[in-house]
Each structure stands twice: as structure tokens, then as C-alpha cells.
Amino acid sequence: MEGRLVLSPSEAGGHRRRTDLAAFEHTCQAEITSIHRLTEQENLYRLQVVDPGERERFTFEPGQFLMLELPGIGEAPFSISSSPSRKGDVELCIRRAGSLTNFLSKVRRGLHVGLRGPFGTSFPMASMAGQNLLLIAGGLGLAPLRSVITYVQENRSHFEEVDILYGAKDPSQLLFTYQYEMWQADDIRLHLTVDSAAGDPSWDGRVGLVTGILAELFAARRGGDFASRTHAVVCGPPVMFKSVCALLTQEEVPMQKMFVSLERRMHCGMGKCCRCNVGSTYTCLSGPVFDYWTVMNLKEAI
Amino acid sequence: MIFKVIDREELGRLFALLAPLGRVIGPVEIARDRRGEHRHGFAEVADFEALCLDYGTTALPAKAYVLPYRERLAAFRLGGQDWEKVPGPDQERPLIFFGLHACDINAFNKLDKVLLGGAYPVPGYAARRREMFVVGSDCQPRPACFCRSMGADTARHGFDLFLTDLGGSYFVEILSSAAFNLVRKIAARDPEEDDHRRYRRRVAEKNTRFTTQVDTTDLTKILDLEFQSEVWQQWGARCLSCGTCANVCPTCYCYTVSEQAGLDLQSARKIKTLYSCNLVDFAAVAGGHNFRPTSHARLKYRYYHKHRGFVEAYEEPLCVGCGRCGESCLAGITVPEVIASVRGGES
């Protein structure tokens, strides 16, 4: 075993803490090129990594997240909502929920923010090829799911039947409404539902839970091999995971083909701060995307 | 491993050789408690005479020197829509620990697994560890010590040399070339059969003095099984969620990151502060949802991380059995009692 103590500075070539830290804390600068208001609470931020080389190298997979930093305000994790083929031109769908996101809701385009990442696991799009897809989202869960949807649009021939099941609290909270026609034009079936349409007399769509749509969908396809040839991606609040995944299990969708994305508040994204731990599984390293079998074996995951 | 024996007086010479090479940190007497007993703490030591190598334990671990409670990760220069990020600050002088017990050496070894492992080693910690020199020293178990149950009562690596008190002399285990070169500069001799015997007797005697044990047989499975056990609620009702246990724990490393803008709005700082999973907002997310809203859920998580998850990942608990958390706990919660209650199904 070598002595660790550096007895004279020249012996070990000096430590490299600052350069090491520069890599550990590396934040690429990105410009907010546009802010698209989606609802009362949510905006879609289009960000462009400023350095062209870094922009090209900023590659990610659907389901991964990044850390967005506003110097002096804070840093927080956000899942990426845009197509992976657009690399460092990323879109983030962000709800006003805390000090950082409140600040973000007040800024104008042109501001530079910091991005670290991308981090975490992704939905295994390549291994889902040749199968049916059930894309199930509740509320803000559509944010990570939209990256999957863009991937499906760009690679539509890789998949069989594709259904989006999306539920929101009320019609005014539906996200990405301007894209629904384009999704359907790409032969993706869209099933919308809201918890309540009391405040919106013009709503002629469905009222109720996503599980209701799911049950009907399986009932209509019973008998064939639909369930065994289907992958499900579920993004939404924990209460939704439980009921949706229970129903999917009942319909015999294999647990290894059901993927969920867990929400936690990472402070580092690199498996050090422990803030996102479920048991001692780091959501930032082993997640945020887990298959349902793994989630079932994590205590207090959902 | 190379073994040597040195006379007690030679230790001062070893100290003098090490002192110019870095910051020497060692156990010193810091106060006396209500019963008049000495209390010790780690401090920077300039004078060998100030060292108290026969200390029992310290209230705070040596962790803070390597993993500071508060650390600046970066500074920013702000201007209009633009800004510049400057990582820093740079590393200080090498750290020389003089008189670390096996538990505290093992604590660093455990921290290494997380902080030096994986795809993202932590630079500040890595630099401090790389340049660290550790003189270990043996100890006598106190009533709160359960290091033997945690497999942390001896240090197999993570030190440069380790001293065992044989009375008038020290038995020295040499693990690094740096330590070997230092010991060459003081009067040291090869151990003889009598030294071996005295060393073995000293170690065997120590092992008879442990009064606190923790049964770790199948503990990961039992914790898994007893996730819904009532005892967690009972311990949770006592826990004040103050985070003292994490503060005094030599192996706790979780943290929070915050940013502060300078008063002139021309600068900002990104600050890392060590945190505790017992604090109420540890698992809170934006929008108000808290994955562990109750004190018992947080206390339970702490045990599951240290005694189940970490064991499954690294084959050892994230606990060295130093007993500091139990001694500092304002509610009198101790690890041996909690684990015994979970195993027994009653508290």
C-alpha cells in the first residue's frame, strides 16, 4: 500500500481539487429561448445550450432528468420533456411550486440558466420496439411522458398500437393541448379524462379516473395477446401509480414491462446527497425510471 | 504488514516529524462534564503534550475535517442575463490524524465507498482523503460501544500506522511506505515473542470488556419483515426529529444544497450543508408532498439505510457502533435498543 501523505508537493504532482470540482460542478449555460404558457401554473421553457459543441454533446434518453440552476436562487431536478434527437435544445415543462419555479415563472426569455446532467435511467425505448405501448399520465406526469411521445412520433413504425391515457384535475389543467391533433395524426390514440368539469360547461369529454379508461381499453381487446405484447409507461402522482399498476398486473401485463418514473427532490443527481433515497436506492442513479417489479421491492416507493 | 515496537518517548519524535507536513488533528481535552469527567474532542494540535491518546471517545467525530458541515461548492459572478460559475475553494494543507480509534478509521473507509465510488467521486473529499495521514490508536470499550457487533472494532486498512499501547511501549502496525519511512527516522525495533504475547493479551482483554451487543443475524431480512412493526411508531413518538444523531455520526454524509445571492446582487454562492434524514423536510418535494412526513417514518428510514440498504449494497452496515448517536440523543434513543426491539417485536 502506498503512503497517502504527500511528503513534498512535487511528489504527487499536486492535487487537482479545483479541476476535479470544476468537472463535478460542471454546469453548462443554456439560454431560455422561449417561454410558452401552457396553463395557469405551468410553462414550457425552451432552452438552448449556449456552446454549440456542448449542445451537440448534450444527449439524453426519454425519462432522464437534469438539474436546472439559477445562480443565487437554487438548483432543482426536472425531467426533460423534449425529443432526444434535439439534444441540447431541451424543453422543460415546469409548474410553479416553490421558490425556484416561482422565480422562473417571472423571468423573460434571453436569461441564461445552468444545466447539469442528464442524469438517471430512462424508458428503454429500443427494447419496447415491435410492441404495443400504453402511455399513462396523470397531471404533471405528462412532462416526462412527452419525451416518450416525441420519440414514438419520430419512430412510429417501431411500435404497434400506441395509446395515451391522460388525466388532469380539470380541463384548464390539461397540458400540451395544442399538440393533441398532431399526436392523433401520427396514429396515436389519445384518451383524455378530467377529475371534474364543473368549472367548464364546454367540456364534452370524459370525467373520471384514468383507470376507468384503462379497464375499458382492456375489455375491448380481451382474448388476444394484447396484454403480453404491451409495454406500459406510467407517470403521475403516487396514488395513481398504485391503482394503475394494480390494474395492469390484473390484466397480466408483465411487471418487467411496466415502467414508472418516481418523483424525488434530488440535491446532487449523482448519488451523494441521499435526498432521493428510497430505502437506500438512489432514485437519481437507479431511477427515476424503474420497472414495476423493482418498485414493488422498494419500501415506501409509491 | 510490517510490525515494530517503539518506546513511549519516541511518539513525541514521530509527532515532531509529522507536524511540519500538514495540519495535525488529534484528541484533546476540551471540557469536564457535570460529574467532573474529562470530555474530549478533535482539534488541531500544535504541541504533542496537548494530545490525549488515552481518550474514551469524542462527542463529535473526525468527519468534519474531511467532510465539512458547510462547504462552498461554487461562487458566481452575476451580470445582467449572464453569469460565470467559479468552482472552489481550493484544498488546504494535508490532514494528519494522530490517534484515531478503529471505529473512526472504519467510518472513513465506509464513507469512501459512497463518496469515492461510483461514477461521481466527490472531489473535495477525494483530495482530502488522498493526502491524509492516519495514526491509529487502540482503545478500551465504553458502555455505549458496540463496534464489535458492527465489525468495526479493528481497522484492517485506512491507516498509515496503528499504535497499540503495551504499557511502556507501543506495538506499531505499519501499512504505508510513508509511515515506514517515518518510523525509520525514530528508534524502533522488531517485535519479539514477548511483544507478540503482550499484544495478543491486550487485544483479548479488550474483547472481554464489551458490555453492549447488537445481534445482526439476518438483520436485513428482519428489518424488511418488520417494516410495518408497531415499534417504529413507539420510537417515532420519542424522536424529536432534531438531527443530532446525524450530526454526531461519523458515517452520515447526506446533505442539502442552497444558493445565496450577495447583497450587491453581483455575486452568489452555492453552499453544501450536511443534513439529516430525520429533519422534517428531508424527503419533501415541490408542491408540498412529503414522502416521510412522520417522525417514525424518518427514524425508520435512517435504520433501513444504515442497517439494511447499505448492507445489501456493500456487505456491511453504515454504522461503526461508536455509540455517539445514542449518547447525544436528547430522547435517549440508542441503536442497540432500537434494533433489539425490532428483533423482539416489542420495546
Search tags:
heterodimer, A: 302 residues, Elongation Factor Tu (Ef-tu), domain 3, Rossmann fold, seven-stranded mixed sheet, 28% strand, globular, B: 347 residues, eight-stranded mixed sheet, 33% helix
Model description:
The complex is a heterodimer of chains A (302) and B (347). Chain A contains 9 helices and 15 strands. By secondary structure, chain A is an alpha/beta fold. Chain A folds into 2 domains: 98 residues, Elongation Factor Tu (Ef-tu), domain 3 (Beta Barrel), CATH 2.40.30; 136 residues, Nucleotide-binding domain of ferredoxin-NADP reductase (FNR) module (Rossmann fold, 3-Layer(aba) Sandwich), CATH 3.40.50. A 7-stranded mixed β-sheet of chain A has the order 10-9-8-7-11-12-15, with helices on both faces. In chain A, strand 8, helix 5 and strand 9 form a beta-alpha-beta unit. The termini of chain A are far apart. The relative contact order of chain A is 0.13. With 347 residues, chain B is an alpha+beta fold. Chain B folds into 2 domains: 185 residues, no CATH class; 100 residues, no CATH class. Helices cover 33% and strands 22% of the residues of chain B. Chain B contains 12 helices and 12 strands. In chain B, the strands form 2 sheets. Chain B has an 8-stranded mixed β-sheet with strand order 3-2-6-7-8-9-1-10, sandwiched between helices. Chain B has a 4-stranded antiparallel β-sheet with strand order 5-4-12-11, with no helix packed on it. In chain B, helix 7 runs antiparallel to helix 10 and helix 8 crosses helix 10. The radius of gyration of chain B is 22 Å and the shape is globular. The model of chain B has no long low-confidence stretch (mean pLDDT 92). The chains are: A alpha/beta (302), B alpha+beta (347).
